[in-house]
Amino acid sequence: MRPIEGSGEGLSRPVIGITTSIETSEGRDCRQVVGRAYISAVERAGGCPVILPMVERREALAPVLDLIDGLIITGGPGVTDGLIGSLPEDLPPVDPVRSQTDDWFFHGARKRDLPMLGICYGMQFINTRFDGAIYADLQAQLGKCAHSPKRSEQRPVRHRVRTLADTWLAGLTGRPGDALDVNSSHIQAIEGPGNGLRVNAVSDDGVIEGIETEDGRIIGVQFHPEALPGTVWDRIFEHLVSIARAGRNRETVDRD
Length: 256
Known about the structure:
The chain is an alpha/beta fold and 256 residues long. Helix content is 30%, strand content 23%. It starts with 8 loop residues before the first helix and ends with a helix.
């Protein structure tokens, strides 16, 4: 789906909330940050990107949850829930404030049946909310090759994934079973899909690279599609925006 041209385009754009990470620097206050590639990907797909705050009280999020039509849970540090093993030294744990805020956004979005996209940490996080488990270190525990630049002397890691037939992700790429190039920047990996989720993509070395709900309203990918503009992976964001737009239009009709 492409953005609608013309003066009414802005009105047709659903609001997509994008979570953030916490960045700390010695001697400075921590910062709430997000890569611009996420914002650009949503804009290209026809959505209105909104950067979400981290808060310490759930009630502070209520107005924001009423505003958004879809949710992206972005990449981040180590997931600590549902963990198999212990986090390695080169993977810091997620900040508790981020983890708690992500949880509030996730459950708020679920309550409103909003579409969601989880990327890297975001996919793992979603899997734990469906009672799925996470390997702390896929290299050490599964004997896999490096899936992160941290483990490859900071060189970019690229590999291939195969989408599984009869999944939403395969339908979006239009090439079920074909090997597709992706980037990679993760140390953890999901042990298996949580309850109500199914696998939609696997890497050549057998690592689960994608999950989804049967209705396609929630999709998670282990790689970073926002950093692959101009490829078939743009369609993941277009899918999210399309569902969000339909929900926004439906709510508008119901109010009228």
